[in-house]
Design goal:
Layout lengths: L1 H9 L5 E2 L10 E6 L2 E11 L4 E9 L4 H6 L3
Antiparallel strand pairs: 1-2, 2-3, 3-4
Length: about 70
């Protein structure tokens, strides 16, 4: 998982944009964790700060929008 997260430092916009209904989750992106095809890293790219904020790592079978809404 470390490699997936570190790769975001070099290519932060590579993840897919999330398409949740909640406006609080706007701008959230995700990538799969290599070797764990059902686990996803959810993050925000903050271009003004040149930073990536890891929000959560979750199994894709969970209620993602509800869980992520609690963290944002």
């Amino acid at each position: 998982m470390d490699n997936a997260i570190h790769s975001l430092l070099n290519w932060p916009e590579r993840g897919a944009a999330c398409r949740f209904r909640s406006l609080a989750l706007a701008g959230l992106r995700w990538i799969f964790v290599p070797g764990f095809p059902k686990h996803m890293v959810f993050y925000q790219y903050l271009p003004g700060e040149k930073a990536v904020r890891i929000v959560q790592v979750l199994h894709g079978a969970r209620d993602l929008e509800t869980l992520l809404s609690e963290d944002v």
